[in-house]
# Entry
Amino acid sequence: MKTFNYRAAVIAAAIIFMSISCQTMSSVDDCKLQFGIVFNEGLHSEALDGRMLLLISNNDKAEPRFQISDGAGTQLVFGIDVDNLDPGENAVFDASVFGYPLESISKIPPGEYWVQGLIHIYETFNRSDGHTVKLPMDRGEGQHWNRAPGNLYSTPQKVHINPGSDNMIVIELDRKIPSIEPPQDTKYIKHVKIQSEMLTEFWGRPMHLGACVLVPEGFDDHPEARYPLIVNHGHFPHTFGGFRTEPPDEDLEPVFSSRFGIDGYNKIQQQLAYDLYKDWISPDFPRFVIIEVQHANPYYDDSYAVNSENLGPYGDAINYELIPYIEEQFRCIGEGWARFTYGGSTGGWEALAVQVKYPDFFNGCFAACPDPIDFRAYTVVNIYEDKNAYYPEEDWKKTLRPGRRNYLGHISATLEQSNHRELVLGTKSRSGDQYDIWEAVYSPVGSDGYPKRIWNKKTGEIDHSVAEYWKENYDLRYIMERDWNTLGPKLRGKIHIYCGDMDNYYLNNAVYLTEEFLENTKYPYYDGEIGYGDRAEHCWNGDQERPNYLSRLRYHQMYVDKILKRIHDSAPPGADLTSWRYKR
# Structure
């Protein structure tokens, strides 16, 4: 029996590993491979500005453009800015181009891959603040680069990639994403669009606001009725979501939800949408007008419903232009005691933000799983005290901060990974994704006309001067605490916040800090409500009776009783409490 030489085996294994690594992972300096992405004059006759993306996948489960995510199954993307790129001119990708999740094409193991090119087209805006910026205008899709109408892309092709080879793989953009048909009005759902004077002036070109309006049962039969208005904030709605006048399709092929581990979740969604319709037309359901606001903009699928140096006066435009127009068109009461707002995630932050920033305009907010409402817990970062967003200060090691988890605490992405993905998709806060829109809304304008970075997108180093600007203008807990002497009397009884204690993005951390302040308020006590869902993930909205996969589909029914009670407790003398309470 031979004696096992452990030291020799370790050395041999290391040599083999390094040999394999050298064969499969070229260094940036050694990599000669290039990709060239080009579009021809027949597809688009003029030069283009935008973000050119190289997409690479090891499978054909879907087009590469639909396989980029924070999840474990993400494929590869590399990006460069192009300015005035002419038809027939190559946009060149070499080993120096930054990518996600591999930083360079030099790191791609040799093999067969599906490749695709896409350009996210930018337009030029000459803003009233004197800055000229290039940004991707929303084209009806809600700011999704991989399906934005007008973007050019290529048919996926299978190629052999070898970073050590000295050649260029040319990809020709041969397709254009078609336009999106506008939704049609129905008996219950109407679509409104206006040109905003405020936003048009700021952006230097016509800018519009819209809304998907759910009108109450009996609206046409009761012309004397005047209705309370409920503003549902959230991501861009093509039409009013979660409302269906027909039972679920019997022939609908069931789809498995990997998030909830449930087969046929699409049928559940249809059933819950039909349930809302049945509730909506029932005799005792209160007759409200509910709107979902459409405020997609050049940075994101919505504006966060507040005024911003980079996005313009969206808060004022929504509240003083769009909402009065809707209230006139749909016979709303049009007074602060009869307006309410709710939403989840982005919409949760917006619901609380508009209540805080326009305290007399609304009579109550219901903020579910809100984006960070206290920037001491900007997910898992304290932007005021931490030096780096991606990892804490440690002597000998670097522990990357988590970015996404499940209800058991299992991590699927780090903050660094999520931000690097955004950086590849767009520089200067132009990715159209989460951390970039927070930056675009909250930051002051930089000297180049784009938002000042809260942290270096590549390294994570925090700019505390930007953090102080965020604090004074958008840290909702801080603003309430700072101004409670004047805000407190106006907000009493209006604040309701709900969050799962295992929110996927750690949003519950900021709710804890806000609760600590609110529960200790005096003169007056805030007299609202804060609730947590045990092991509940993102989108939990305060429903303690149903699992999250069901309760997240019932936002429109969730707060009806509380709104009714608030109206009766706070309406001024002589207020109309009856014309909108008809049975049918």
Summary: The chain has 14 helices and 26 strands. The two ends are 91 Å apart (CA to CA). Residues 24-176 form a domain with the Immunoglobulin-like fold (CATH 2.60.40).
